[in-house]
Specification:
The protein is built from 13 helices and 13 strands. By secondary structure, it is α/β, with parallel strands linked by helices. It has one domain (4-334): TIM Barrel (Alpha-Beta Barrel). The strands form four sheets. The protein has a five-stranded parallel beta sheet. A hairpin with a 2-residue loop joins strand 8 and strand 9 (149-150). Helix 2 (85-105) runs parallel beside helix 3 (121-133) and helix 3 (121-133) runs parallel beside helix 4. It is globular. The two termini are 27 Å apart.
Protein backbone atom coordinates (compact mmCIF):
# COMPACT_ATOMS: atom_id res chain seq x y z
CA UNK A 1 0.00 0.00 0.00
CA UNK A 2 1.33 3.47 -0.85
CA UNK A 3 0.23 6.86 0.42
CA UNK A 4 -0.16 9.87 -1.88
CA UNK A 5 -0.80 13.33 -0.44
CA UNK A 6 -2.76 15.53 -2.86
CA UNK A 7 -2.81 18.64 -0.61
CA UNK A 8 0.82 19.68 -0.32
CA UNK A 9 1.65 23.33 -0.99
CA UNK A 10 5.23 24.24 -1.76
CA UNK A 11 7.27 27.43 -1.88
CA UNK A 12 10.39 27.57 -4.02
CA UNK A 13 13.02 29.99 -2.68
CA UNK A 14 14.28 30.68 -6.20
CA UNK A 15 11.01 32.37 -7.23
CA UNK A 16 10.97 34.91 -4.43
CA UNK A 17 10.77 38.40 -5.95
CA UNK A 18 9.78 37.19 -9.41
CA UNK A 19 6.35 38.91 -9.33
CA UNK A 20 7.77 42.43 -9.27
CA UNK A 21 6.56 44.74 -6.52
CA UNK A 22 4.25 42.01 -5.23
CA UNK A 23 7.23 39.86 -4.24
CA UNK A 24 6.73 37.31 -2.90
CA UNK A 25 9.07 37.55 0.06
CA UNK A 26 9.70 35.33 3.05
CA UNK A 27 12.08 35.52 5.98
CA UNK A 28 12.43 36.66 9.58
CA UNK A 29 11.99 40.23 10.86
CA UNK A 30 12.47 41.22 14.50
CA UNK A 31 12.64 37.56 15.41
CA UNK A 32 9.24 36.75 13.81
CA UNK A 33 8.82 34.78 10.60
CA UNK A 34 6.86 36.48 7.84
CA UNK A 35 5.63 35.98 4.31
CA UNK A 36 4.58 38.83 2.04
CA UNK A 37 2.49 38.61 -1.12
CA UNK A 38 1.63 42.06 -2.43
CA UNK A 39 0.00 43.98 0.44
CA UNK A 40 -0.80 40.79 2.35
CA UNK A 41 1.65 39.97 5.14
CA UNK A 42 1.40 36.75 7.15
CA UNK A 43 3.44 36.61 10.37
CA UNK A 44 4.30 33.74 12.64
CA UNK A 45 4.08 30.96 10.04
CA UNK A 46 7.48 29.36 9.38
CA UNK A 47 7.68 29.24 5.59
CA UNK A 48 11.42 29.97 5.28
CA UNK A 49 13.85 27.14 6.11
CA UNK A 50 10.95 24.79 6.85
CA UNK A 51 9.39 21.75 5.15
CA UNK A 52 7.27 24.25 3.23
CA UNK A 53 10.28 25.45 1.23
CA UNK A 54 13.20 23.13 2.06
CA UNK A 55 13.11 19.83 0.15
CA UNK A 56 15.31 17.74 2.51
CA UNK A 57 13.21 18.86 5.48
CA UNK A 58 10.07 18.07 3.48
CA UNK A 59 11.28 14.56 2.73
CA UNK A 60 12.14 13.95 6.38
CA UNK A 61 8.69 15.11 7.54
CA UNK A 62 6.98 13.05 4.84
CA UNK A 63 8.78 9.96 6.17
CA UNK A 64 7.71 10.72 9.74
CA UNK A 65 4.09 11.14 8.62
CA UNK A 66 4.08 8.02 6.46
CA UNK A 67 3.66 9.89 3.16
CA UNK A 68 5.25 8.09 0.21
CA UNK A 69 4.47 10.62 -2.52
CA UNK A 70 3.21 14.19 -2.73
CA UNK A 71 1.55 16.12 -5.52
CA UNK A 72 3.15 19.52 -4.99
CA UNK A 73 0.97 22.56 -5.49
CA UNK A 74 1.43 26.35 -5.44
CA UNK A 75 0.84 28.37 -2.31
CA UNK A 76 -2.59 30.07 -2.62
CA UNK A 77 -0.95 33.23 -1.28
CA UNK A 78 0.96 33.55 -4.56
CA UNK A 79 -1.68 33.34 -7.27
CA UNK A 80 -1.16 37.05 -8.11
CA UNK A 81 -4.44 37.40 -10.02
CA UNK A 82 -4.79 41.01 -8.87
CA UNK A 83 -1.31 41.90 -10.10
CA UNK A 84 -0.37 43.05 -13.63
CA UNK A 85 -0.78 40.04 -15.88
CA UNK A 86 2.83 40.18 -17.07
CA UNK A 87 4.02 39.83 -13.45
CA UNK A 88 1.59 36.99 -12.83
CA UNK A 89 2.57 35.15 -15.98
CA UNK A 90 6.28 35.54 -15.22
CA UNK A 91 5.76 34.12 -11.74
CA UNK A 92 3.71 31.17 -13.06
CA UNK A 93 6.44 30.32 -15.57
CA UNK A 94 9.18 30.41 -12.95
CA UNK A 95 7.09 28.57 -10.35
CA UNK A 96 6.21 25.76 -12.75
CA UNK A 97 9.82 25.38 -13.86
CA UNK A 98 10.97 25.20 -10.24
CA UNK A 99 8.33 22.61 -9.32
CA UNK A 100 9.24 20.50 -12.33
CA UNK A 101 12.90 20.60 -11.29
CA UNK A 102 12.01 19.19 -7.86
CA UNK A 103 10.04 16.38 -9.51
CA UNK A 104 12.95 15.55 -11.83
CA UNK A 105 15.30 15.24 -8.84
CA UNK A 106 12.85 13.08 -6.85
CA UNK A 107 10.45 11.38 -9.29
CA UNK A 108 9.49 8.65 -6.83
CA UNK A 109 8.52 11.16 -4.13
CA UNK A 110 6.92 14.03 -6.01
CA UNK A 111 4.60 15.05 -8.81
CA UNK A 112 3.40 18.64 -9.26
CA UNK A 113 0.55 20.85 -10.43
CA UNK A 114 0.81 24.01 -12.50
CA UNK A 115 0.00 27.58 -11.56
CA UNK A 116 -1.76 29.58 -14.27
CA UNK A 117 -2.30 33.32 -14.93
CA UNK A 118 -6.07 32.87 -14.84
CA UNK A 119 -6.83 36.59 -15.19
CA UNK A 120 -5.81 36.18 -18.86
CA UNK A 121 -7.43 33.00 -20.28
CA UNK A 122 -5.29 32.94 -23.44
CA UNK A 123 -2.06 33.08 -21.45
CA UNK A 124 -3.45 30.54 -18.97
CA UNK A 125 -4.10 28.03 -21.76
CA UNK A 126 -0.63 28.57 -23.17
CA UNK A 127 1.02 28.01 -19.77
CA UNK A 128 -1.11 24.93 -19.05
CA UNK A 129 -0.10 23.35 -22.34
CA UNK A 130 3.57 24.10 -21.68
CA UNK A 131 3.39 22.80 -18.11
CA UNK A 132 1.73 19.53 -19.07
CA UNK A 133 3.46 18.78 -22.37
CA UNK A 134 6.96 20.11 -21.65
CA UNK A 135 7.25 19.86 -17.86
CA UNK A 136 5.06 16.77 -17.23
CA UNK A 137 3.00 18.51 -14.55
CA UNK A 138 -0.17 16.61 -13.68
CA UNK A 139 -2.84 19.32 -13.95
CA UNK A 140 -3.43 22.83 -12.64
CA UNK A 141 -3.95 24.45 -9.24
CA UNK A 142 -6.05 27.61 -9.26
CA UNK A 143 -8.06 29.92 -7.02
CA UNK A 144 -11.77 30.63 -7.21
CA UNK A 145 -11.85 34.26 -8.32
CA UNK A 146 -9.57 35.83 -10.88
CA UNK A 147 -9.47 39.61 -10.55
CA UNK A 148 -13.26 39.65 -10.61
CA UNK A 149 -13.69 36.84 -13.17
CA UNK A 150 -15.78 34.10 -11.55
CA UNK A 151 -15.27 30.37 -12.10
CA UNK A 152 -18.52 30.18 -14.06
CA UNK A 153 -17.60 33.02 -16.44
CA UNK A 154 -17.79 31.78 -20.07
CA UNK A 155 -14.54 33.66 -20.76
CA UNK A 156 -12.78 30.75 -19.00
CA UNK A 157 -14.25 28.06 -21.26
CA UNK A 158 -11.06 27.80 -23.34
CA UNK A 159 -9.17 26.89 -20.16
CA UNK A 160 -11.62 24.12 -19.26
CA UNK A 161 -11.51 22.82 -22.83
CA UNK A 162 -7.72 22.71 -22.65
CA UNK A 163 -7.83 20.65 -19.44
CA UNK A 164 -10.24 18.19 -21.06
CA UNK A 165 -8.14 17.94 -24.23
CA UNK A 166 -4.98 17.29 -22.19
CA UNK A 167 -6.89 14.88 -19.90
CA UNK A 168 -5.67 16.57 -16.72
CA UNK A 169 -7.72 17.76 -13.73
CA UNK A 170 -8.01 21.22 -12.26
CA UNK A 171 -7.76 21.72 -8.49
CA UNK A 172 -9.70 24.70 -7.12
CA UNK A 173 -8.21 26.00 -3.86
CA UNK A 174 -9.32 29.53 -2.89
CA UNK A 175 -6.89 32.16 -1.71
CA UNK A 176 -7.52 33.94 1.57
CA UNK A 177 -9.95 36.64 0.59
CA UNK A 178 -7.75 39.52 1.69
CA UNK A 179 -4.93 38.37 -0.60
CA UNK A 180 -6.84 39.03 -3.82
CA UNK A 181 -9.25 41.73 -2.60
CA UNK A 182 -8.15 45.35 -2.92
CA UNK A 183 -7.17 46.90 0.40
CA UNK A 184 -9.97 49.45 0.26
CA UNK A 185 -12.54 46.66 -0.05
CA UNK A 186 -11.31 44.40 2.73
CA UNK A 187 -13.94 43.62 5.34
CA UNK A 188 -11.97 42.41 8.32
CA UNK A 189 -12.16 38.73 7.41
CA UNK A 190 -8.79 38.15 9.07
CA UNK A 191 -10.29 38.70 12.54
CA UNK A 192 -9.90 35.34 14.33
CA UNK A 193 -8.36 34.07 11.02
CA UNK A 194 -11.87 33.67 9.62
CA UNK A 195 -10.47 33.89 6.09
CA UNK A 196 -8.86 30.48 6.47
CA UNK A 197 -10.85 28.86 9.29
CA UNK A 198 -14.25 29.21 7.59
CA UNK A 199 -13.51 31.33 4.52
CA UNK A 200 -12.04 28.48 2.52
CA UNK A 201 -15.06 26.28 3.23
CA UNK A 202 -17.41 29.02 2.02
CA UNK A 203 -15.41 29.66 -1.14
CA UNK A 204 -14.98 25.96 -1.92
CA UNK A 205 -18.70 25.36 -1.54
CA UNK A 206 -19.35 28.34 -3.80
CA UNK A 207 -16.83 26.94 -6.30
CA UNK A 208 -18.86 23.73 -6.56
CA UNK A 209 -22.02 25.80 -7.09
CA UNK A 210 -20.37 27.84 -9.84
CA UNK A 211 -19.18 24.70 -11.59
CA UNK A 212 -22.66 23.17 -11.53
CA UNK A 213 -25.09 26.10 -11.63
CA UNK A 214 -22.87 28.12 -13.96
CA UNK A 215 -23.00 25.29 -16.48
CA UNK A 216 -19.25 24.69 -16.52
CA UNK A 217 -19.53 20.93 -15.96
CA UNK A 218 -22.46 20.68 -18.36
CA UNK A 219 -20.49 22.42 -21.10
CA UNK A 220 -17.36 20.36 -20.43
CA UNK A 221 -18.36 16.75 -19.66
CA UNK A 222 -14.74 15.55 -19.70
CA UNK A 223 -13.54 18.18 -17.22
CA UNK A 224 -12.45 16.80 -13.84
CA UNK A 225 -12.49 19.20 -10.87
CA UNK A 226 -10.92 18.49 -7.49
CA UNK A 227 -11.93 20.54 -4.42
CA UNK A 228 -9.75 20.40 -1.25
CA UNK A 229 -10.90 20.38 2.38
CA UNK A 230 -13.63 17.88 1.58
CA UNK A 231 -15.28 20.30 -0.84
CA UNK A 232 -16.08 22.80 1.89
CA UNK A 233 -19.68 22.00 2.85
CA UNK A 234 -20.74 20.88 -0.64
CA UNK A 235 -21.00 17.11 0.06
CA UNK A 236 -23.14 17.86 3.12
CA UNK A 237 -25.36 20.13 1.00
CA UNK A 238 -25.44 17.84 -2.03
CA UNK A 239 -29.12 17.00 -1.70
CA UNK A 240 -30.09 20.65 -1.23
CA UNK A 241 -28.02 21.66 -4.24
CA UNK A 242 -29.69 18.96 -6.35
CA UNK A 243 -33.14 20.09 -5.22
CA UNK A 244 -32.36 23.67 -6.20
CA UNK A 245 -31.25 22.60 -9.66
CA UNK A 246 -34.45 20.64 -10.14
CA UNK A 247 -36.92 23.18 -8.78
CA UNK A 248 -35.59 26.70 -9.21
CA UNK A 249 -36.55 28.50 -12.38
CA UNK A 250 -32.95 29.20 -13.39
CA UNK A 251 -32.14 25.48 -13.23
CA UNK A 252 -34.29 24.53 -16.22
CA UNK A 253 -31.56 25.23 -18.75
CA UNK A 254 -29.11 23.00 -16.83
CA UNK A 255 -31.14 19.78 -16.70
CA UNK A 256 -29.98 18.23 -19.94
CA UNK A 257 -27.55 16.08 -17.95
CA UNK A 258 -28.60 14.51 -14.62
CA UNK A 259 -27.31 16.20 -11.47
CA UNK A 260 -25.52 13.03 -10.32
CA UNK A 261 -23.67 12.89 -13.63
CA UNK A 262 -22.42 16.44 -13.15
CA UNK A 263 -21.51 15.73 -9.53
CA UNK A 264 -19.44 12.73 -10.60
CA UNK A 265 -16.99 15.13 -12.29
CA UNK A 266 -16.01 16.36 -8.80
CA UNK A 267 -13.56 14.84 -6.34
CA UNK A 268 -12.40 15.83 -2.85
CA UNK A 269 -9.61 15.36 -0.33
CA UNK A 270 -10.23 14.07 3.19
CA UNK A 271 -8.79 17.02 5.15
CA UNK A 272 -11.97 17.59 7.12
CA UNK A 273 -10.81 17.67 10.73
CA UNK A 274 -12.36 14.62 12.40
CA UNK A 275 -12.63 10.89 11.67
CA UNK A 276 -16.44 11.19 11.83
CA UNK A 277 -16.46 13.85 9.12
CA UNK A 278 -14.01 11.80 7.08
CA UNK A 279 -16.23 8.74 7.41
CA UNK A 280 -19.24 10.76 6.22
CA UNK A 281 -17.31 12.08 3.22
CA UNK A 282 -16.13 8.65 2.11
CA UNK A 283 -19.57 7.11 2.65
CA UNK A 284 -21.22 9.95 0.73
CA UNK A 285 -18.81 10.24 -2.19
CA UNK A 286 -17.13 6.83 -2.34
CA UNK A 287 -13.41 6.03 -2.05
CA UNK A 288 -12.97 6.40 -5.80
CA UNK A 289 -13.48 10.17 -5.43
CA UNK A 290 -11.88 10.89 -2.04
CA UNK A 291 -8.11 11.27 -1.64
CA UNK A 292 -5.60 11.78 1.13
CA UNK A 293 -4.82 15.45 1.85
CA UNK A 294 -2.70 16.85 4.67
CA UNK A 295 -2.16 20.59 4.01
CA UNK A 296 1.45 19.57 4.50
CA UNK A 297 3.51 22.02 6.60
CA UNK A 298 0.48 24.31 6.84
CA UNK A 299 -1.24 25.63 9.93
CA UNK A 300 -3.80 22.79 10.00
CA UNK A 301 -1.52 19.96 8.92
CA UNK A 302 -3.04 16.64 10.00
CA UNK A 303 -0.02 14.83 11.43
CA UNK A 304 -1.89 11.57 12.00
CA UNK A 305 -4.15 11.57 8.95
CA UNK A 306 -2.84 8.24 7.67
CA UNK A 307 -3.68 6.68 11.02
CA UNK A 308 -7.12 8.33 10.89
CA UNK A 309 -7.86 6.70 7.54
CA UNK A 310 -6.57 3.36 8.82
CA UNK A 311 -8.86 3.63 11.85
CA UNK A 312 -12.03 3.94 9.75
CA UNK A 313 -14.30 0.92 9.18
CA UNK A 314 -13.24 0.47 5.55
CA UNK A 315 -12.34 -2.59 3.54
CA UNK A 316 -8.70 -3.04 2.56
CA UNK A 317 -9.55 -2.02 -0.99
CA UNK A 318 -11.39 1.12 0.13
CA UNK A 319 -8.56 2.08 2.47
CA UNK A 320 -5.97 1.63 -0.26
CA UNK A 321 -8.06 3.79 -2.61
CA UNK A 322 -8.29 6.72 -0.20
CA UNK A 323 -4.65 6.50 0.86
CA UNK A 324 -3.24 6.50 -2.65
CA UNK A 325 -4.76 4.36 -5.39
CA UNK A 326 -7.44 6.89 -6.32
CA UNK A 327 -4.91 9.74 -6.49
CA UNK A 328 -2.50 7.67 -8.58
CA UNK A 329 -5.20 7.03 -11.15
CA UNK A 330 -6.74 10.51 -11.00
CA UNK A 331 -3.48 12.40 -11.47
CA UNK A 332 -1.83 9.84 -13.73
CA UNK A 333 1.04 8.96 -11.42
CA UNK A 334 2.59 5.99 -13.19
CA UNK A 335 6.06 6.26 -11.71
CA UNK A 336 7.38 3.86 -9.11
CA UNK A 337 6.52 5.03 -5.62
CA UNK A 338 8.49 3.34 -2.84
CA UNK A 339 6.49 2.90 0.36
CA UNK A 340 8.03 4.65 3.35
CA UNK A 341 10.86 2.58 4.79
CA UNK A 342 12.03 1.07 1.50
CA UNK A 343 15.29 2.07 -0.11
CA UNK A 344 15.13 5.17 -2.25
CA UNK A 345 18.00 7.41 -3.32
CA UNK A 346 15.86 10.49 -2.89
CA UNK A 347 15.33 9.73 0.81
CA UNK A 348 18.88 10.84 1.58
CA UNK A 349 18.27 14.22 3.30
CA UNK A 350 21.63 15.45 2.01
CA UNK A 351 20.21 15.53 -1.52
CA UNK A 352 18.65 18.97 -2.22
Amino acid sequence: MRTIDVHAHNLCPEVMGVAGAAGPEMGVADGVTFFRSGDYVLRGVPFADSPFSDVPKRLALMDRMGIDHQILSPNPLTYFYAQPVADGERFCHAQNDAMAAIVRRHPDRFSALAQLPMQDPERAVRELERAVRDLDLRGSYIGSDFAGIALSDPRLDAIWSAHAALNVPVVVHPAPVDVERATVNQQGSRQWDLDIVIGFAHDETAAVAHMIYGGVLARHPRLRVHIPHGGGTAPYLRGRMATALGRRQWGKALRERPFDELWAQLSFDCLVGTPAAMQFLIASEGPSRVMLGTNFAGWDQEDAIVAQVNSLPLSAEQRAAVLGATAASYFGIARSVHPVGEASASRDPSIP
